[in-house]
Design goal:
six-stranded antiparallel beta sheet; single chain; elongated; mainly beta
Amino acid sequence: MQFSSIVLATLASTAALAAPWKPSVDNEIRVILSDLGETGAQNVFPEGKRASQSPSQFGPFRTVELQLGKDVQNQDYRCQILDPANKPIVLLRGANTDITFGDGDKGAWTFRHESEVRQIICDPTFKKIGSDATEIRVVLSNQGTETGSQTVFAEGSRQEKRPVGSSGPFETVELRVGALVEKQDQRCQIVDKAGKPIIVLRGENRDITFADGDKGEWTLEKESEVSKIVCDPHFKAMRV
């Protein structure tokens, strides 16, 4: 009887040792906020559904990082952080500017401006924003001759470019400032073949610089060829 008990115990022990090892599943979605000093917060989110949480500390913070476990099915998962006014915070990483952020094993995103964070949202339907949201685009056109040109500028510094594709002559010009361009009142100027600024009209405005303002095209006072486009964050309205 004692012998049988010993044998059974030995078999049970052997079976336990022979049981296959099952690795733990790493499907954690972790958002890490930091001020690059002593202030920080970490939140963990479930996979596969939209979820929102408040950080344990509101900051202000300067960076945010998304860390996706290797077993998270959607490795393109993205999250978003909101400021105290419930507006998405604009983030920068390398050449990317966005209001949602991913992992991609590329480290932390930097806040465009240091900010408190009141809410974090992670959603499997979030997508990377289109490049046009960060562009400054000047569109020249002439309906009569079906001539057009689109020239793209980066924000932040004075730039001069020849119109792409054609120098005209043109009848209208439009400035399209992307939603994530910091300076929404950015202005540009078009210059004729003689090197003189071209006068443009929109509503009651008669100017030698032009803006977006979601108000559409400006009309050239006189149909003209364009030799150069100048975009400068220091331009102001210069009515003539």
